């Protein structure tokens, strides 16, 4: 059986004079035009690799948006044997970077979608382009991420000798998970971090906040104890984030998150072919309970009462 080589990439997009444009890269080694992409590092999540590879190849910092169709095609592995390369793709908007090119790429071209369709060297790359155009026509391309994080693995309650359970810290596994959570939130360009005041939640998202120079905004209402007293405070935090319409992450607990996800379920409004899929993912995350350290990314269009969830991704750390 052929081995699978996982990879990831993006379709950076922008508008110029109202015209949708995408960024193609040219590889002199193959003399081809394609999307920025590359292989996953060991243990790396595809979303993290997609943003990293785009930066390394184009010099552009991107924020991942809605996922696009993946591609599979035959290649040779390091030993010269048959393999299948599986590439995960995301739409992405540029948020920074120098644009300095990496040695494997000698040109980045921003072109309109018709020109991109004609210039792409591989038919398989047109599938992602078509999906991006469809998302744009459906009003589902200009999204912002609202990420829900269940705190990473903590010291068990039975072995914690502290008087207040809210002070229970992460264990070694949890600390490793928090580093992965940080990388995932970075790929989606989170700029606002809200957390339960419990130590295990704050410690899960703090590495990301520190790395980005952000403040972790702690809320007692997102703790298990605060939620048990009244769930209104927790759901109010989600409504406030929807009002702001800013890339955000909210970290809380297993018993709290289902109610918060339920609030999002009522706002699912995706294209017909994806709407039920999005709703099912939200229901599954709420019903099964998110795993410790898991990140659920809701791709949202609009803000306030007009905010609608058009896609959902689950990233396990």
TrEMBL record:
UniProt keywords, alphabetically: Hydrolase
Keyword Amino-acid biosynthesis: no
GO MF entries: hydrolase activity
InterPro entries, sorted: His_Pase_superF_clade-1 (IPR013078), His_PPase_superfam (IPR029033), NUDIX_hydrolase-like_dom_sf (IPR015797), NUDIX_hydrolase_CS (IPR020084), NUDIX_hydrolase_dom (IPR000086), Nudix_hydrolase_domain (IPR051325)
Pfam families, per the entry: His_Phos_1, NUDIX
Residues that span the membrane, as ranges: none
Domain Nudix hydrolase, chain residue ranges per copy: 3-133
PANTHER family: BIS(5'-NUCLEOSYL)-TETRAPHOSPHATASE [ASYMMETRICAL] (PTHR21340:SF0), DIADENOSINE 5,5-P1,P4-TETRAPHOSPHATE PYROPHOSPHOHYDROLASE MUTT (PTHR21340)
Protein name: NUDIX hydrolase
Organism: Terrabacter terrae
């Amino acid at each position: 059986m052929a081995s699978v080589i996982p990879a990831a990439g993006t379709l950076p997009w922008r508008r110029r004079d109202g015209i949708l444009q995408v960024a193609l890269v040219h590889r002199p080694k193959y003399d081809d035009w394609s999307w920025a992409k590359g292989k996953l590092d060991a243990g790396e999540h595809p979303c993290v690799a997609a943003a990293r590879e785009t930066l390394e190849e184009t010099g552009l910092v991107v924020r991942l948006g809605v996922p696009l169709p993946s591609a599979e095609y035959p290649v040779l592995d390091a030993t010269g044997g048959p393999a299948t390369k599986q590439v995960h793709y995301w739409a992405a908007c540029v948020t920074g970077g120098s644009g300095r090119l990496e040695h494997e790429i000698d040109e980045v071209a921003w072109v309109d979608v018709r020109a991109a369709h004609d210039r792409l060297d591989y038919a398989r790359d047109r599938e992602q382009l078509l999906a991006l155009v469809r998302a744009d026509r459906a009003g589902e391309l200009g999204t912002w991420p609202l990420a829900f994080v269940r705190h990473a693995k903590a010291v068990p309650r039975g072995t914690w000798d502290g008087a207040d359970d809210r002070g229970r810290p992460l264990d070694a596994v949890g600390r490793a998970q928090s580093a992965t959570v940080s990388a995932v939130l970075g790929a989606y360009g989170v700029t606002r971090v809200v957390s339960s005041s419990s130590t295990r939640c704050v410690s899960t998202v703090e590495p990301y906040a520190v790395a980005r120079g952000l403040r972790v905004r702690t809320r007692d209402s997102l703790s298990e104890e605060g939620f048990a007293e009244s769930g209104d405070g927790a759901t109010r935090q989600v409504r406030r984030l929807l009002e702001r319409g800013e890339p955000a992450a909210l970290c809380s607990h297993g018993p709290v998150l289902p109610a918060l996800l339920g609030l999002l379920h009522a706002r699912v409004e995706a294209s017909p072919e994806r709407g039920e899929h999005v709703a099912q993912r939200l229901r599954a995350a709420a019903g099964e309970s998110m795993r410790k350290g898991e990140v659920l990314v809701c791709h949202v269009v609009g803000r306030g009462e007009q905010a609608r969830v058009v896609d959902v991704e689950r990233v396990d750390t």
